[in-house]
Each structure stands twice: as C-alpha cells, then as structure tokens.
Amino acid sequence: MFGGVALAAAAGAVLASAAYPLFLCAVRTGLRLGELLALQWPDIDFNGRFTEVRRNLVAGRVTTPKNGKTRRVDMSAQLTATLKALLQARKKETLKNGWGSVPEWIFCTESGGPLDGDNLRHRVFYKLLEKAELRRVRFHDLRHTLRACCSRTGSRRRT
User: Fold this and answer.
1) Across the chain, what does the average pLDDT equal?
2) How does pLDDT run across 46-72, given as a tens digit for each residue?
3) CA torsion sign, 128 to 28 to 61 to 48?
4) Cα–Cα distance for residue pair 102/150, rounded to 1 Å
5) pLDDT tens digits, one per residue of 71-101
6) What's the count of helices (H) and strands (E) in the chain, helices before strands?
7) Is the dihedral of CA 74, 33, 151, 131 positive or negative?
8) CA–CA separation, 97 and 90 (whole Å)
9) End-to-end CA distance of the chain
10) Which fold has domain 4-153?
11) Is the Cα torsion angle 75, 60, 11, 21 positive or negative in sign?
12) pTM higher than the cut 0.85
C-alpha cells in the first residue's frame, strides 16, 4: 500500500507516461487489472460519471468479473475528463490509421487490440515504480490503496 508521499512520487512518473489514463482509472476506481483491461467504451457513462464492470480479461480470455456479477463504479470528475480526452485521442488515431471505427477496448495496443496484463505489469508498471524510486508492489495493491484512502476519509466506497 502507498502513502501520500509515495503516491505523489508515483504520480510524477505516471503523468509522463502514455499509461496515465489506465493508472488513474486503477487508482480512482479500485478495479482489478483484468477488469481495467476489459473495459470498453459502451461501459462508460460520461454523463452519469460511472462505469459498468461487465467483464474481466485474463491471459487473453474474456470472462465475467470475479464474482460473476456486473457492478457500477463511480468515476471522479478528473477520471471522467481524462477518459473523455482519451476517447477524443482515439478518434483522431482512428482517422489517422484508417481504421473503420474506434477500438472497442478503452486501454488498447497501438493496433487497437486488448492490452496484455503481464506485459503491462512488467514493461510499464514495475518500470514506473522504479522510476519513482518506490518499492516494488503488486498492481493489485493499487486496489487496496483506494480502499485504505476511502476508509481514512470515512467514505464507504465499494470496489
């Protein structure tokens, strides 16, 4: 679990990364890695500021969320604005690359396919921790960081 100073250090490293929207979503929603990787644009309600967690992506296979049920997770104004900007960037990429439509995956590869969780963890997440001079933690610990922050502030947010 990260404390406030560690989160600030990590934020500096992440802000400089193309993975910023993904990590902001992870920290602000507490979603599991597979749930993040499986998010698709129709899952996001920008007006209502929430996302529907409908699926999980593990080892290239789409499955149901861990408990088998869909759930709604609120989004902060910051996350909502970041995802709107990401969608606009994806629309520009789509035109530039001559794709027929915006890739369905919110967090995708340069070719529009779903990200691989192991690659993300090893090639991006651990390198960002190293760059921020933070100890190596599991990606899943971001989920616990949100829960700890919420409990300190008295929020009853479910993740």
Assistant:
1) 84
2) 999 999 999 999 999 999 998 899 999
3) negative
4) 34
5) 999 999 999 999 999 999 999 999 998 989 9
6) 7, 5
7) negative
8) 10
9) 16
10) hpI Integrase; Chain A (1.10.443)
11) negative
12) no
